[in-house]
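Before relying on records like the one below, remember that each one covers exactly one chain. Contacts with other chains, cofactors or solvent are not represented anywhere in the record.
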Amino acid sequence: MVVSRTGRFIALACLGWALSAPGRAAETAAPSTTSLYATELKNLQDQPQTLEAYKGKVSVVYFWATWCAPCQIETPKLVRLYDKFKDKGVVVIGIALDNADKVRAFTKKMGVAYPTVYGGTSAIQIGRDLGNDVGAVPFTVILDRDGKVVETIKGDTPDGKLEAILAPLAG
């Protein structure tokens, strides 16, 4: 993939923003899924919901923002990943760190069919609880059926990595 100079600049700016985010922990404990399943966020219809319904599924939890250049590149890949694995007990859950109108427009434009919620500080805290100590976006967490964190990825995900992780978990 060829990334323009502007794209690289935006990606570096996003990373710089993430690294300068306040509230970074000096040490992180083992990632906890407690807040992921319990915190109430809003879905794209502005209805409050928790992610409790996704317990027991292999989950790809994707923290993103509409203004994030790597997120704009990865979203179509996640749409394809969801289509490939949704019938095997795998769910992709998008957690947007953005406002509702922008998230709705972006997901419609990108054809996102996987569950998406949005939230401000609550969503950021969930990411921190799952090991995102620098506030990076994108930030991806893979959970097994027992809700155990299998993998966390800060920044963009190398092509094929998620499929390699999900294949044995979905089987």
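The domain at 65-169 is CATH 3.40.30.10 (Glutaredoxin).
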